[in-house]
Write a structure and sequence with these properties.
Length: 68
């Protein structure tokens, strides 16, 4: 099996936003507001991995398009 070729199940890592500060910047909210939203589960696409928040830009955009 050739692992050099991407497949449909591989997510582009450049699409990922890591950390509370970066997610806050992306959302245009303060760090405190973003933390409240994340820990409250108000942004379902976001996950905490290894002590850091991570979210896909695509999933975040889709989430807010469906909410608004």
């Amino acid at each position: 099996m050739n692992t050099d070729l991407p497949n449909d199940n591989t997510r582009d890592v450049s699409d990922l936003v890591w950390g509370l500060d970066e997610i806050s910047h992306l959302l245009g909210r303060t760090r405190r507001q973003t933390h409240f939203l994340l820990i409250g589960g108000h942004i379902p696409p976001a996950r905490k991995l290894g002590g850091r928040w991570v979210v896909s830009k695509r999933a975040l955009t889709a989430f807010f398009q469906n909410v608004c």
